[in-house]
Amino acid sequence: MTTTEGFGVYVHVPFCTRRCDYCAFATWTDRFSLAGAYVTACISELRRARSSEDLPPATSVFFGGGTPSLLDPDAIGSILSEVGLAAGAEVTVECNPDTVDEVKLRGYRGAGVNRLSFGVQSMVPHVLRGLGRSHSAGAVRSAVEAAAGAGFAGAYNVDLIFGAAGESMADWSSTLSAVLELDPPPAHVSAYALTVEAGTPLAADTSRYPDGDDQADKYLLADSVLFGAGLRWYEISNWAVPGHECSHNLLYWRQGPYRGIGCAAHSHRVDPRSGGSRRWWNVRTPERYIRLVSENGSAEAAGEELGAEVSAVEALQLALRTREGVPAASLPAGTAIDPALEGLVEPAGEGMLALTPRGRLLANEVALRLRRAPIAGN
């Protein structure tokens, strides 16, 4: 399993115009006045990291949030100019459809962005309202047209959420059809089951909790429809036209190294000598982040050291989520030994096993049976 392939930079943008009912991310709707100081702090953190941590050229950069598309192209470009990009690096900006137009997206393109990710969630009005989303299906179509006009045709992702209260199977089918009918259609689709996060408006209203069986049916429908449109699953919640998989997300699932910039951003550094790694994260609020970076250059809140054994098990858990799968030796050797795996895994290349569609629905249960493959000679 590759753990040193590529290097990613994640930039967290914590500003939104409206918080969705299901969102528990580190985002704020009342602090965009801090944007200028926040961008300056991100640049400072990057400069310090490149100087003191010997960061390699980034093979991928991901601006997430929050709503990164609230930042203008100059702000995005000023951060990117400090990253140090490898040749052919993938650079993604998450966008809310109602915060972009062709002029802004052309500016992003000129700043070095070559991939967009639109937070669509649904194309059905009452489902969007139930999720607390501010955009319309028409805004999605306009954003995609703007992206094509700005040079992003075939280089964008659509994020979807299924399982919201009041969303029928017909609604979900309609969303999938509408997304695939976008002009141009997306080369990448992410579809996530709605989850209930503590402290959110959704968590406070049990009548809106998703139903697991309903979500399972909707997942299988998405897999079938997207496959029929030429998108292949490569991670439990992600499908892409072959060759359009998200490099940055693959880095996470392959347990690669990445550096998080901004408040609440996480980082991961691999130690190839020991086989272990270190993970750490920044303080959560933008005010504190700005202050700490300006005072001493570091906004780290806490971290943890992962030993070789823990890292190996975690690597297997992440790999299990992908189409590449895990070594067969890391799972019980065949259904004759563990009947519970029957129909959940299938061959995925020489000596490898991957989850079947049903297995993806039960990935946590399969993960419980993972074991580190024995080392030759031991």
Could you describe the 3D structure shown?
This protein has 378 residues and is of the alpha/beta class. The chain has 2 domains: 8-252, TIM Barrel (Alpha-Beta Barrel); 325-378, no CATH class. 33% of the residues lie in helices and 22% in strands. The chain contains 12 helices and 15 strands.
Order of helices and strands: EHEHEHEHHEHEHEEHEEEHEHEEEHH
End-to-end CA span: 19 Å
Spatial arrangement of strands, main beta sheet: 7-8-6-5-4-3-2-1-9
- The tally of structural domains comes to 2
**Structural class per helix/strand content?**
alpha/beta
What's the CATH H-level superfamily name of the largest domain?
Aldolase class I
CATH topology of the largest domain: TIM Barrel
Helix run count: 12
Average pLDDT across residues? 93
Low-confidence runs (pLDDT<50, min 5 residues)?
A: 374-378
Strand content: 15-25%
Tell me the major beta sheet: 9 strands, mixed
Provide the helix percentage: 25-40%
CATH class call of the largest domain: Alpha Beta
Named CATH architecture of the largest domain: Alpha-Beta Barrel
| Computed CA radius of gyration, to the nearest angstrom | 21 Å
Q: What is the approximate shape?
A: globular
Number of strands: 15
SSE blueprint:
Blueprint: E1 8-13, H1 35-52, E2 58-65, H2 73-80, E3 85-95, H3 102-111, E4 115-121, H4 125-131, H5 137-149, E5 156-162, H6 169-180, E6 188-193, H7 212-228, E7 232-235, E8 238-240, H8 247-253, E9 258-261, E10 266-270, E11 277-282, H9 286-296, E12 300-306, H10 308-320, E13 326-327, E14 345-347, E15 352-355, H11 357-361, H12 363-367
Parallel strand pairs: 1-2, 1-9, 2-3, 3-4, 4-5, 5-6
Antiparallel strand pairs: 6-8, 7-8, 10-11, 11-12, 13-15, 14-15
